[in-house]
Amino acid sequence: MDAGPDDTPFSDFLGFELLLEEQDRELLSRVRAFMTREVEPVINEHWTRASFPHELVPGLAELGISGLAYDGPGCPARGALVNGLVAMELSRIDPSIGTFIGVHGGLAMGSIMLCGSPEQRERWLPAMARMELIGAFGLTEPEVGSAISQGLATTARRDGDAWVLNGAKKWIGNATFADLTVIWARDVEDGQVKGFVVEKDTPGFVPTKQEDKIALRVVQNAEITLTDVRVPEENRLQEAHSFRDTAGVLRVTRMDVAWQAAGCARGAFEHALRYTKSREQFGRPIASFQLVQDLLVKMLANVTASTAMNARASQLQDAGQLRDEHASLCKAHSTTRMRETVGWAREVLGGNGILLEHHVGRFVADAEAIYSYEGTREINTLIVGRAITGESAFV
Ligand SMILES: Cc1cc2nc3c(=O)[nH]c(=O)nc-3n(C[C@H](O)[C@H](O)[C@H](O)COP(=O)(O)OP(=O)(O)OC[C@H]3O[C@@H](n4cnc5c(N)ncnc54)[C@H](O)[C@@H]3O)c2cc1C
To answer: Could you tell me the keywords of this UniProt record (predicted)?
Structure first.
């Protein structure tokens, strides 16, 4: 094992960061410093106003973490394990920034990486890795979420050297300001789902910000209407032939979300532990009470178990052996344990747990979105259940 930076938080109880090469530990350390210095002090204000901190994008770009795992043109090609630990680190400080990077660097860049032609990768990935172009990923629709593989209703019709898209999307992160949005639509000719890179300001493409969310308020989610949107054939992802290819992107990015969940739980736990050492009741720090220690240790166990499971799955991903059911098990487990952990963190803060100034309240709220997106607990459970029984229980 290499000696790396020594800023590892105590919550890395079993030393998972030591699994990384020294240069990857240094990257993680830079991410940690940026998030702590630049993001944490301003994020509650943005959360309250539901605004996005565009001023932080150049700093995030300098970290070089967009498309971190991908081995494509201009991409860092650092692998899945460090990508996962970085995703955890972002969400440990703020799950909205973790989601922003997950959508741009994971879902949008991943669609082009895994479903684009070599020319398309050259055309978009280097600028996306530098964050000069920001991406979004449009799959979910107002009337269909979990059943999207069967019920996707947005249509694509070939018209000469272009395609015409019609339909609607919902929940599309970053889409209010993204330069490129990957839209998944069903070809009316052969009935297959295909991917299209729609550029900002294309006529007929209208994203509208979703207001009044109670979770991940910093993430700008949009409902999108697509009315006779003309997309040139060279913007159709050339290797997206059916929903199976879309699912290939989700397999990889679902691991990102499992790591985000571990990060969200870890951030809440750390704030809670710190608080229990400073808060006194009955003349003693509340950390000295057995019932409080019981909750703190259960939180640490949850965070550690999720990290262990995710680390192994990311190693399998690096070895080209990650299966859908592996990622689904990690996502379902990490998000369930996250929801439990943030609840306990809030509990040990008493009334202060619902005040934004102590941060834990933000993690509690944000956990609700992470719990449901990229496949709910039920859907990921059904994916694992099908794999271990050979029986599909989806309908
Ligand atoms: C904050 C946020 C950001 C998002 N970002 C994006 C994005 O960038 N791009 C994008 O394309 N999408 C995005 N999504 C959409 C997200 O992926 C969906 O919300 C998710 O897939 C669930 O779909 P749904 O919300 O329509 O719930 P539904 O599918 O309506 O499910 C409702 C409930 O029914 C349950 N259920 C459904 N089917 C079954 C079944 N067969 N058996 C048992 N239970 C079942 C579900 O588990 C859930 O509990 C985002 C969502 C959120 C909340």
So the answer is: FAD, Flavoprotein, Oxidoreductase
Query: Please, which pLDDT band fits residue 1 given cuts at 50, 70 and 90?
Result: very low
With CA atoms as reference, report the closest residue to 98 among 255, 261, 254, 337: 261
Residue 76: CB within 6 Å of ligand 1?
no
Take residue 317 and report the two structure tokens written for it: 């991903």
| Residue 328 CA, ligand 1 centroid: distance in Å | 14
Mean pLDDT of the chain: 97
pLDDT, one tens digit per residue, over 282-319 is 999 999 999 999 999 999 999 999 999 999 999 999 99
Q: How far is the CA of 260 from the centre of ligand 1 (A)?
A: 17
172 lines ligand 1 (CB under 6 A): yes
What is the Å distance from ligand 1's center to 311 Cα? Answer: 25
- Residue 7: the pLDDT is 84
Contacts of 392 (CB under 8 A, 6+ apart): 382, 386
Q: Is 194 helix (H, G, I), strand (E, B) or coil?
A: strand
pTM of the model: 0.97
Q: Where in the chain is the domain with CATH 2.40.110.10?
A: 135-235
Architecture, CATH, for domain 243-389: Up-down Bundle (1.20)
CATH of 16-129, one of 3.40.50.12780, 3.40.50.300, 3.40.309.10, 1.10.540.10: 1.10.540.10
With b for 16 or more beta-carbon neighbours within 10 A and e for fewer, the 185-209 pattern comes to: bbbeeeeebbbbbbeeebeebebee
CATH number of the 135-235 domain: 2.40.110.10
Question: What phi and psi values does residue 42 have, to the nearest 5 degrees?
Answer: -110, -10
Report the separation in Å between the CA atom of 123 and the middle of ligand 1, taken as the mean of its atom positions: 32
- Report the nearest atom of ligand 1 relative to the CA of 184: 11
With cut-offs at 50, 70 and 90, classify the pLDDT of residue 3. Answer: very low
